[in-house]
Amino acid sequence: MFCTLGEIIGSTGSRLERTLSGIPGKKCGTIIFTAEELSNCRDIATMQLCANKLDKKDFFGKSDPFLVFYRSNEDGTFTICHKTEVIKNNLNPVWQPFTIPVRALCNGDYDRTVKVDVYDWDRDGSHDFIGEFTTSYREFSRGQSQFNVYEVLNPKKKGKKKKYVNSGTVTLLSFKVESEHTFVDFIRGGTQLNFTVAIDFTASNGNPSQPTSLHYMSPYQMNAYAMALKAVGEIIQDYDSDKLFPAYGFGAKLPPDGKISHAFPLNSKTENPNCVGIDGVLEAYFQTLRTVQLYGPTNFAPVINQVARSAAEVTDGSQYSVLLMITDGVISDMAQTKESVVNAASLPMSIIIVGVGPAEFDAMEELDGDEVRVSSRGRFAERDIVQFVPFRDYIDRSGNQVLSMARLAKDVLAEIPDQLLSFMKSRGIEPRPPLPANSDSPAMSTTTTTTTTPATKKERNTHT
Prior knowledge:
Structural class: alpha+beta
Helix content: 10-25%
Distance between the termini: 43 Å
Oligomer: single chain
């Protein structure tokens, strides 16, 4: 049998039962999968430390100290997991409180060694070592006490000077732990991912009947558009119970009058643009290629606004929209698109843009706010909701399409959980309690083996 992690987590109560097969004519029994996220890997620790009488390292002044935290690994090595800010010219610094995931500090092992180095900051990067101490999460969890005052020791000084005591002390001022909600919490509580597709039908893609076209329908292999759609869609569909996906095209002339549209349903049904499953979207895509005339320009704003209107209808955390846009070229309506993204950033919505073909996609990077948050008319996006990737970066050199699709899906979907959490946190939305394994409530169902559409799920993405 075969199943995905998404199917297990998305099933009611995170419990999935499947029939085993493989021996013709013989019953092989059933297998039951259950998923549980370890609570100690979800804890977030917030702490504050200060130091007293640290060694003076600067010739013309005092030290500029900062702390470096290391998590110990199973092989005995250490990995940096946090650095504090630098406190200038101070031998008795008080650092700002900071927050760190417990899994980053000790990987959930409360007794694992945590090493802390104390350095004197130098402009050229050759920071001077003041000393070190070791502790553990369990020790930190005692909070402010005599157990959390640490001598900072410099092994070299200790070996050379008989009267050496220490290079100062570091004291834990405060320590608290909170459990942070995760993507899994919301999915288990019934949050649905509403997946929408938008495909570029502009003339720059080339004549679909020619092998050089990005839309070429080869009888032997999928084109880049189909590969991107299938790679992303087959994973995200596990988090959408009804498997109905609105699918749009943009930049084409439509029959019978040749009117240009930038948000037309691929199934030609204006009142119900939903396609059944990813295979249904692919079928509608191929059918559209046979009936429309590729034209232009490449306008993103109409489709983004279309999905944003739907996302705005349900903002209680029960639904979250993901728009996948696949395109080959430069955006023609960049100003309008930026404004649409800024507006959409306040809604339960994310946008994935996959660039296909050899074009330069510099403008797309501007929308992907990893470095600089996108802005419009002096207003910045509330959240980073856009993830852009050029498909050519994921094509396997040996021609293995399955591997290319897996690489693409991994990267384009990597930011969705954090983007969903950022919306929920900004609105103070808590996940609903996990659904019991025996729950048969259609209104709260996620991915199950049935095809029942949730009774309370609103009709969405209706074209206007």
